[in-house]
UniProtKB/TrEMBL annotation:
SUPFAM superfamilies (alphabetical): Cgl1923-like
InterPro entries: Proteasome_assmbl_chaperone_2, PSMG2_sf, Rv2714-like
Species this protein is from: Actinopolymorpha pittospori
Lineage: Bacteria, Bacillati, Actinomycetota, Actinomycetes, Propionibacteriales
Keyword check for Repressor: no
Gene Ontology CC entries for this record: proteasome complex
Name of this protein: Proteasome assembly chaperone (PAC2) family protein
Pfam families noted in UniProt: PAC2
Keywords: Proteasome
Length: 284
């Protein structure tokens, strides 16, 4: 089991998790965890024993050289960090790693042990998948919750997906067995621009985290990076008639299927987010 460092007494903690690999199209989910760890100045408190879960011929260790010429090995693993966001009513446990190559059930048992040891009250799982989504429209983010009361309170549905799954799906089921409420967010990355990174998808996931936990995430350059990414894809599409026509067909399908966004609830949510970000209200 993961040995946590030091004595940790957290305030109403929520566990956020994301994993590289099958669950992480364009690295959007792991990039969201990395962003949160950076802006919240998360401190590491433990990590998995990589020998138990990783095939090093699939996820190879890397060699680095420090400032003094000392070489070091970085092993693929899953790390646990703890953060206290400014002015937030709770602490955050961040679990950031790589989808394991083997022993998924013991892997999830270790994470559930961390959640129990640190008193997590809820788990939030982040993922990203490739989809028929136009890059010119807001990135769709689907959400589900395992706990019926939580799902009802948040207006979400129970997970309905059937088919092959990744470690995020297995961990969500482990939360359900442990009676730990779990919410999952999946960003739909346009499949025709699946190369990393996709800051627009990362931004969409962070917005969902903000809304769910009712806190403000400093975004830094991410909004401008997302706009630059979209402009870059626009330029590529203009140079290829087939791609341009395909994007237009996706836009038409998306616009026909979507309900109007300018609902009172949507407007109120965006206005509240704007107020939180004003400098005189503690925003970025």
């Amino acid at each position: 089991m993961i040995e946590l460092e030091g004595s940790l007494e957290l305030e109403d903690p929520v566990l956020l998790a994301a994993f590289e690999g099958w669950n992480d199209a364009a690295d959007a989910a792991s990039a969201a965890l990395d962003h949160l760890a950076k802006v919240w100045k998360a401190r590491p408190v433990g990590q998995m024993d990589s020998d138990d879960y990783y095939d090093y011929q699939v996820n190879r260790p890397t060699v680095t050289t420090g400032d003094e010429g000392v070489r070091d090995i970085i092993w693929p693993t899953t790390r646990v960090m703890v953060a206290t966001p400014p002015d937030a009513p709770r602490d955050i446990i961040l679990v950031r790693g790589i989808e394991p190559n083997m022993r998924w059930r013991p892997f999830c048992d270790e994470i559930m042990g961390v959640a129990d040891a640190l008193g997590a009250e809820m788990t939030v799982l982040l993922g990203a998948l490739l989809a028929d989504s136009p890059h010119t429209r807001p990135i769709p983010v689907t959400a589900s919750a395992t706990d019926p009361d939580l799902a009802s309170a948040l207006g979400l549905e129970a997970p309905k997906y059937e088919g092959p799954t990744g470690i995020v799906g297995i961990l969500q089921e482990a939360c359900q067995r442990a009676n730990l409420p779990a919410v999952s967010f999946w960003a739909a990355v346009p499949h025709y621009v699946a190369s990393t990174p996709c800051p627009k998808a990362t931004l969409a996931l962070l917005r969902k985290v903000e809304d769910l936990l009712d806190l403000t995430v400093p975004l830094g350059d991410l909004p401008e990076d997302a706009r630059a990414w979209e402009r870059g894809v626009d330029d590529l599409a203009r140079d290829d008639t087939e791609v341009s026509e395909y994007v237009q067909s996706l836009e038409q399908a998306r616009d026909a299927a979507d309900l109007p966004e300018a609902t009172g609830e949507a407007i109120a949510r965006e206005f509240e987010r704007y107020l939180r970000r004003r400098p005189d209200r503690g925003g970025e």
